[in-house]
Amino acid sequence: MESLGVLLLNPMNAYLEQELDRRCKLVRLWESPSDRRADFVRSHAVSIRAVVGNASNGVDAALIDALPALEIVASFSVGVDRIDLAKCRERGIRVTNTPDVLTDDVADLAVGLAIATLRKIPQADRYVRAGLWKNKGDFTLTTRFSGKRVGIIGLGRIGLAVAKRVEAFDCPVNYYQRTKQAYPSYTYYPTVVELAANSDVLVVACPLNAQTRHIVNREVLEALGPKGVLINIGRGPHVDEAELVAALVDGRLGGAGIDVFEDEPNVPEALFPLDNVVLVPHVGSATHETRNAMADLVLGNLEAHVSNKPLLTPVV
Ligand code: NAP
């Protein structure tokens, strides 16, 4: 693939960047000052046949229009919500993502966030570090995770991996998605509100699209209630963040463990003083093992494309 011109949108992974540099003609978008990106893209446009982006940096209609030789968008993410898929279909541009290899890590984080939120693990850690154990005595009592009813929005690859994990904690599993499946031990609810009303912990694990934007709204948060906990490892815009913050501040929601935010890396500062939330910076797939596997999948898709072989993980 030495002749393949690849535009890398941001420095997402050192191993991926090194391999793209070694195997292709790599163009790094961030080498251009941000106010001159359009000129930079124009100057490389004829040679760029592939774009590699991720969960934060996608490929919109303007970038597609600026790249007449574009053949493939290989995303370093499973979510493709930042790619204009309709435009890619229209132009015959292939799109790939990185499913499966990240499933375990994201599911691990979802369960970790649920336990950390209910058992206040980060708060207890801060209590020890601040010397409060010695000066003020025992830490506050917290809430049990084992046995809690876990509701999952989107029982796909990640949702099922969360279900499998929480079953080991004796948690009954409920779910909502468009298609009811014949799972013998998971209970289907036909609406998110009914799912929330029948769950103690609500996990968001569906893709982001026009139907799922703000799928967790005020009504859903009210149904989850003052003892309920929201875990978002999907995408920030799945949740109406203003409503989430208001519900947490007012005590209308019990707590939240959040990996993804509406306007990353900006996080509502109103969440910072709350001790019923655990906040992490979009790290669902961020382990050495998984990020290397994701990089190999991006490279494998590009190799397949230039060799006219079937793509490993096609979306379009
Ligand atoms: P997946 O296997 O495609 O599963 C998606 C599930 O969502 C399916 O069960 C699907 O069922 C359901 N779904 C689709 N559209 C829906 C809708 N309109 N309403 C309700 N449910 C809907 O995807 P996955 O690999 O598990 O990944 C899920 C998402 O996790 C990704 O798209 C990404 O946004 C997010 N993610 C986040 C991180 C992170 O770092 N935090 C990392 C990886 C992935 P139906 O088709 O029957 O509705």
TrEMBL record:
Pfam families, from UniProt? 2-Hacid_dh, 2-Hacid_dh_C
Q: Any idea which UniProt keywords this protein has?
A: NAD, NADP, Oxidoreductase
Q: Which organism is it from?
A: Zizania palustris (Northern wild rice)
What's one GO MF term for it? glyoxylate reductase (NADPH) activity
Residue stretches making up the D-isomer specific 2-hydroxyacid dehydrogenase NAD-binding domain:
111-284
- Looking at the record, the residues that make up the D-isomer specific 2-hydroxyacid dehydrogenase catalytic domain are 7-315
Q: According to its UniProt record, which protein family does this protein belong to? A: Belongs to the D-isomer specific 2-hydroxyacid dehydrogenase family.
What InterPro entries does the entry give? D-isomer_2-hydroxyacid_DH (IPR050223), D-isomer_2_OHA_DH_cat_dom (IPR006139), D-isomer_DH_NAD-bd (IPR006140)
Record's Gene Ontology CC terms?
cytosol
What lineage is this protein's organism placed in? Eukaryota, Viridiplantae, Streptophyta, Embryophyta, Tracheophyta
* Protein's recorded name: Hydroxyphenylpyruvate reductase
